[in-house]
Amino acid sequence: MANSGYFDENSDVSAILFDLDNTLIQTRKGDTKACNKLVELLQNEYGLPKDMAVESGSTFLRAFRARPDDESYALHEWPAHLWRNCLPKNYKHIAKSVSTEWLRLRFRYLALTNDVIHLLETLREDYLLGLITNGPSRAQWQKIERLGLRKYFDCVLVSGDLPWEKPDQHIFHEACKLLNVEPRNCIMVGDKLETDIKGGKEAELAATVWIPLQKDEEISDLPDITIDNVTELPEVLPNSPKLKRSTNMSDDC
């Protein structure tokens, strides 16, 4: 449930910075769903015993989360390499087809929900929107492009392209610079206390909004506002006049 009342009537918030994974898209849940479907596929289509299929899927998911990209491989070849390492010896030849199905299912489950699309489209009528995401450049841009996210944002920053990552205040200030706004006019929305919230506080943004990944996660006093889901964000935003998108924004956005 959203907690409101942080902003007063004189608040002048003109830009909202969003985290990507587990904030706008449910990366952990989506990847788990995709992997569970693949476990079924391994059993029903390829004949793996259930215990082998489950072990292969679990091992792959752990490896992929630990290292979502390796630039010594082509981007589409990296998950195939991981599957090849995770499948039993007699099934390694199916790694490429399994990896193709993994990517299809993954982006199906990571797609923005209609509620989040409506949220972003509505917010863009009154606010500048920025996206700041940590992670390897190719892997993060693959998600951004495959999910069609660019059109919702005035500025997109991927830490893999930059000398800093969240919680370094420089990445937040870079977003503000590209949007041509002051940090005091921005809020940061994200799921991680140690990156999104801590970084937003150290960058002296107007406020930080935390979305705990787990419903039973211990509430922290670090964020200014806590909500259960990103779609609750309008409930806590100030009602002050907003800054419309301007031709003065940096072309680098």
Automatic annotation (TrEMBL):
InterPro entries: HAD-like_hydrolase (IPR051400), HAD-like_sf (IPR036412), HAD-SF_hydro_IA (IPR006439), HAD-SF_hydro_IA_CTE7 (IPR011950), HAD_sf (IPR023214). GO terms for biological process: N-acetylneuraminate biosynthetic process. It comes from the Eukaryota. One of its GO terms (molecular function) is N-acylneuraminate-9-phosphatase activity. Its cofactor is Mg(2+). The keyword Cytoplasm does not apply. This is N-acylneuraminate-9-phosphatase. Keywords: Hydrolase, Magnesium. The keyword Acetylation does not apply.
